Known about the structure:
The structure holds two protein chains of two kinds. By secondary structure, chain A is of the alpha+beta class. Chain A has helices at residues 3-26, 76-89, 112-122, 133-142, 186-196; strands spanning 34-41, 46-49, 52-55, 63-69, 98-104, 127-129, 147-149, 161-164, 167-170, 175-180. Chain A is built from five helices and ten strands; from the N terminus they run H-E-E-E-E-H-E-H-E-H-E-E-E-E-H. Chain A starts with a helix and ends with a helix. In chain B, 16% of the residues lie in helices and 53% in strands. In chain B, the strands form two sheets. In chain B, strands 1, 2, 3, 5, 6, 8 and 9 form a seven-stranded antiparallel β-sheet that branches. In chain B, strands 7-4-10-11 form a four-stranded antiparallel β-sheet, with no helix packed on it. Chain B has one domain (26-144): PCu(A)C copper chaperone (Immunoglobulin-like), CATH 2.60.40. Chain B is α+β, with helices and mostly antiparallel strands. Chain B contains one helix and eleven strands. Chains A and B meet through helix 2, helix 3 and strand 8 of A and strand 3, strand 5, strand 6 and strand 9 of B.
Amino acid sequence: xxxxxxxxxxxxxxxxxxxxxxxxxxxxxxxxxxxxxxxxxxxxxxxxxxxxxxxxxxxxxxxxxxxxxxxxxxxxxxxxxxxxxxxxxxxxxxxxxxxxxxxxxxxxxxxxxxxxxxxxxxxxxxxxxxxxxxxxxxxxxxxxxxxxxxxxxxxxxxxxxxxxxxxxxxxxxxxxxxxxxxxxxxxxxxxxxxxxxxx
Amino acid sequence: xxxxxxxxxxxxxxxxxxxxxxxxxxxxxxxxxxxxxxxxxxxxxxxxxxxxxxxxxxxxxxxxxxxxxxxxxxxxxxxxxxxxxxxxxxxxxxxxxxxxxxxxxxxxxxxxxxxxxxxxxxxxxxxxxxxxxxxxxxxxxxxxxxxx
Lengths: 199, 148
């Protein structure tokens, strides 16, 4: 091939790639989580972080990635928060469109200071909040989150907490628009985050 | 110049040759039980979990029946299960490792639960966990603490 032919060939390839990119961007995203259409209005909450009160509605304007768990959870909670961190890191500065909020459903053990420090260990931008036993008993079910404190181990006194393991994605108006089940990989969550940037 | 590249190729092959078996080597092995890739989570609170792959190269099934560690008041074997999107975690009496088979301890499944940690576990350090098997006996294991 001479230079001219090479150039034409490359132009054709570039045009095809461009056309494919345009076509794909016009397609509705293939969500890895469950997309909720129309988005469901969610209540507000006022809970405490180690740095002071956090009102969910104060975060309007960002998409909130809301996760309920407890710091004594060695398994599913850190995995989920780690996946969120990795997926958000991959977005670079676009990650600023999102705010992760970790709510402890175990205020008996988790003080606001502890929850905040726990969340910040994953990323300094992650918020960690909790409330009184009564407040949590009100907030969690209002977001469709189930939790149950198990009886303490007779020897150690440790108790585990059963809890819904999905991440809730709220849009800029605080409405529920997507949920992620436990077990998605960081690249899968990243795909959804990129799609969410266009909503 | 050609020789240089040849030399480079030989070196990289040598390097790959050295690295490959190291990655595959068990972290501990005894009486047919082999432990691979153990790791424990850094802990801010007084609990953490440890994960690993346990292989049984023996002709008989074996059971991981208990565990202990110098860094924790109490160590249990736990199983995480998911039902209708709700995560729960329970102590189990043991984990069977079938003859010629393996048991995987990973997030969302089995883990070694460290409770009542006597100190903070920091990424980069290693802790010692002692596993008790029904047949293979006691296996002491150095477990790196890392964010996976």
